[in-house]
Amino acid sequence: MEFPENWVLANFLSFDLEDKDDCGYDYLIIYDGPDDSSGQIGTKMCGSTKPTEIESSGNTMHILFHTDSGTEGTGFQIQILEISKIYTVLHLVKNFI
Hints:
With about 100 residues, this protein is mainly β. The protein has one helix at about 85-95; strands at about 5-15, 25-30, 40-45, 55, 60-65, 75-85.
């Protein structure tokens, strides 16, 4: 029997990094796996627009934050959740009964 893995959900509570067109100074990149050789989820993020929730496809997520010593924003807050695929499926089934 094979059990499905859990996955990771990143929920942004706040987000404010230096805003440049190419996000060249301060930025956040999220990877779908254990390190930065994994596939990138979404785009390089900067500025003050709060990103939507980001889900990994498996049970790991790598978050890379880069900053320089120049202009700065207030930073960011991320809520990291481990989501159980089994619980989600059972919860959805329960709502239909």
